[in-house]
Amino acid sequence: MLIDSDIMGQLMIGKSLLSCAFRPQILLRPANSSGSGNNVVLSEPARSAGPETAILDVFFSCRLVPKIINGGIAGIIGVSCVFPLDLVKTRLQNQQVGPNGERMYKSMFDCFKKTYKAEGYFGMYRGSAVNILLITPEKAIKLAANDFFRHHLTTKAGELPVTRQMAAGGLAGLCQIIITTPMELLKIQMQDAGRVAAQAKLAGKTVPKTSATKLALDLLREKGIMGLYKGIGATMLRDVSFSIVYFPLFATLNDLGPRKADGSGEAVFWCSFLSGCAAGSMAALVVNPFDVVKTRLQALKKAEGEVAFNGISDAIMKTFRNEGVTAFFKGGLCRMIVIAPLFGIAQMVYFLGVAEAILGIDRKH
């Protein structure tokens, strides 16, 4: 979610699963009479068809293309709405405490104030173009992979237990990092450039301005394609662990609420919304240490006097030794705050059927 991709990606998957969850052609009919969402069942046509036909059933009955378009639209709107919070999160996570306890930003609000004063309104959106450009292909990969893995992880009885839903989400996250890692690497350089430049100015130095395109070309020229994948291991840890926390928590909370009166077994709108907000916020906080490690590893330029890191374990040890355990939760509040608007945007885009309207698809069939 921007917005770290783990957040936005899981919200897209969570909502898209609800959107196709109770269609008779394929899946996600409750496995018990109470409408529990922890196990889902493939309908008879999908189970009885051959594997190729079943895969097509999964893709087309869930309307993969509209889901991708809706995901992209929601992602772009989400970037526009909450990107300043993500920039603040990145700067808070990257700043290191000096030997005498000195730091540039004292809090989230202090970072907002100083960044806006020094760089203006558009400075709060540095790096957003990278997200806007790549968020749709990123979601396309994740949604398609999630549907594919859900199909192949379905048991012979047609059930999809929550543990397998978690596995599908985690595997989809692994596929997504093909786009996520370079996207966030470039985004982080642009977001943190203002902080690094300000620190350099205090030290009597200057840092030349750059762009995401120049950064990408320089990395490709100097280190090849793998230069764009610095921090891929930490990205994988964050995204997969987010799935492991988010999916079972969302399923559990969503099952607690009332069902719709139409007999579909779906939770009412406000219940799925609150469940998504709560599960997403909790998952974001739990995996924040991995996000801090990832952000610090992907920051190619450090401010004057800051420590460099060589891998995940080195980043964990040095961060803990120099700043203590609280450093791993820097920016955690920012990550939790963005969940509600992100989930609300995703819910509304799917609820309104923006992609279906664009494509001329009748949502009733």
Structure description:
The structure is a single chain. The two termini are 31 Å apart. A two-stranded antiparallel ribbon has the order 1-2. The protein is globular and about 70 Å long. It is 68% helix and 1% strand. It contains 15 helices and two strands. It has 365 residues and is mainly alpha-helical. Residues 18-48 have low confidence and may be disordered.
Features:
mainly alpha; two-stranded antiparallel ribbon
Q: What can be said about this structure in brief?
A:
The protein has 365 residues and is mostly helical.
Helical content, roughly?
Answer: 55-70%
Backbone shape: globular
Portion of residues in beta strands equals under 5%
Largest sheet: 2 strands, antiparallel
- Gyration radius, in Å: 21 Å
Question: What is the number of helices?
Answer: 15
Spatial strand arrangement across the major sheet: 1-2
Secondary structure tally: strands = 2
Give the arrangement of secondary structure elements.
Elements: H1 5-20, E1 29-30, E2 40-41, H2 44-48, H3 51-61, H4 64-94, H5 108-123, H6 128-153, H7 162-202, H8 212-223, H9 232-256, H10 269-286, H11 288-298, H12 312-323, H13 332-337, H14 339-352, H15 354-359
Antiparallel strand pairs: 1-2
Helix pairs in contact: 1-6, 1-7, 1-9, 1-14, 3-6, 4-5, 4-6, 4-7, 4-14, 6-7, 7-9, 9-10, 9-11, 10-14
